[in-house]
Amino acid sequence: MGEFVDREREVAKEFGKIRRLFDEGRVEELKERLGELIKRDPYFLEPYILLNEIYEMEGRLREAEEILEEAYRKAVELISSEGRLPDRLEWKHPTNRHIIKALISWGTFLWEIGEVERALEVLKEVYRMNPADEPGVRFYILAILEGMGFEEFEQTFSKEGEYDLKDLESWFERRSKDYPEVFRAFR
């Protein structure tokens, strides 16, 4: 299908402005504003992802899953043509990042809840479409292939809420060689 590059979305600028409401603790107002953005442009996916995080924090796990699944469906609908995903959906285009984030979020969610095969399928597609892999999907794929759970991955590589890229790269370099049939296809 070639390359998909999303268009500039008017609500993206507004999302950037209202995101600060989270830091200010104005969560109810933020949820309302995110809902408005979704109504105005259901294919701009950042509001879904943030709502997912908020619902998880509130313990509303069913709603968190539903909103994230909706973001995933919208992402696939947006980028698919005749039932096929594009050959390329690259991070280098800022307008694609909300889509890639939605796909990765759904993949890691599936991994978290133990739906490992589905998670691997989603994450491999993201990696295939964006072989430069700026977001680091290859690390998630390798962790799944190594039998790591999501929590184990987080505990191993996350330091103060951020991934230690030096450790991740070193680990990937050592361990990915055991899966040439997986990683060769994406290089």
Radius of gyration: 17 Å
What is the 3D shape?
Answer: globular
* Helix/sheet category: mainly alpha
Mean pLDDT: 94
User: What count of helical segments does DSSP give?
Assistant: 11
Numbering strands along the chain, what is their spatial order in the largest sheet?
1-2
CATH-defined architecture of the largest domain: Alpha Horseshoe
Number of strands: 2
The proportion of residues forming helix, as a percent range, comes to 55-70%
Number of domains: 2
Report strand %.
under 5%
Name of the top-level CATH class of the largest domain: Mainly Alpha
CATH topology of the largest domain: Serine Threonine Protein Phosphatase 5, Tetratricopeptide repeat
Separation of the first and last Cα atoms: 19 Å
Give a quick account of the main beta sheet: strands, pairing sense, barrel closure: 2 strands, antiparallel
Q: For the record, what is the CATH homologous superfamily label of the largest domain?
A: Tetratricopeptide repeat domain
List its salient traits:
two-stranded antiparallel ribbon; mainly alpha; Serine Threonine Protein Phosphatase 5, Tetratricopeptide repeat; globular; 187 residues; 2 domains; 2 strands
